[in-house]
Amino acid sequence: MRVTSALAGDAHKIKKHGADARAAGFELVPAAFASLGDWGPSIRKWFTELWQEKIKDAKAAHEPVWPVIQKNLQWRTRISCILQRSNAQMLLSRAVHQESSCPAHAHRARASCLPDSNPYGRDGLAHSRSLSTARRALRVA
Fold first, then answer.
1. Residues near 131 by beta carbon (within 8 Å), at least 6 away in sequence
2. What is the pLDDT of residues 25-60, one digit of tens each?
3. 75 contacts: CB under 8 Å, gap ≥ 6
4. Are 32 and 42 in contact (CB under 8 A)?
5. What are the C-alpha distances in Å from 46 to residues 13, 43, 67, 87, 100?
6. For residues 79 and 51, is the Cβ–Cβ distance under 8 A?
7. pLDDT tens digits, 8-25
8. How far apart are CA 36 and CA 88, in angstroms?
């Protein structure tokens, strides 16, 4: 079995929250994803079983299966796009704001809290948090 960050994420989440979830009567399905798109084994198994059951239900009801398969692919695509968009935002934010001197953001991921920052970085790319603040200010004015 290959070791990936998604697999490590699964193990970490199960170790951290598994006992509490079982004690509360829940089944924990950790949704761990690697930054390059690999799915953790728990979420992959859960997702596959979910859609296999939906396909089986469609067959039992004598309905076409292709809409279920299409919906499955749409959800996989949506999850992949969200993951890659988040990766891009994180990388752009770190690349643009290397000079961050804000102690609350020592990790250098955001510099939107700096007093001289504006909704657009040096490269002209907008950052969602500062843009929403700027939009609110425009609505008030």
1. 119
2. 998 888 888 888 888 888 999 999 999 999 999 999
3. 47
4. yes
5. 15, 5, 20, 24, 41
6. no
7. 778 888 889 889 999 999
8. 11
Average pLDDT on 108-122 reads 48
Closest among 14, 15, 7 to 38, alpha carbons compared: 7
pLDDT classification of 139: cutoffs 50, 70, 90: low
Per residue in 64-112, pLDDT (tens digit) is 999 999 999 999 999 999 989 988 888 888 777 666 555 555 554 444 5
* Residue 120 in tokens: 């657009």
pTM of the model: 0.57
Contacts of 14 (CB under 8 A, 6+ apart): 28, 30, 42
Calpha distance 26→20 (Å, rounded)? 9
The residues facing 126 across adjacent strands are: 120
Token pair 């657009």 is found at 120
CA quadruple 58, 59, 65, 68: dihedral sign? positive
At CA 36, angle to CA 109 and CA 43, rounded to 5? 105
Residue 73's identity, in one-letter code, is: L
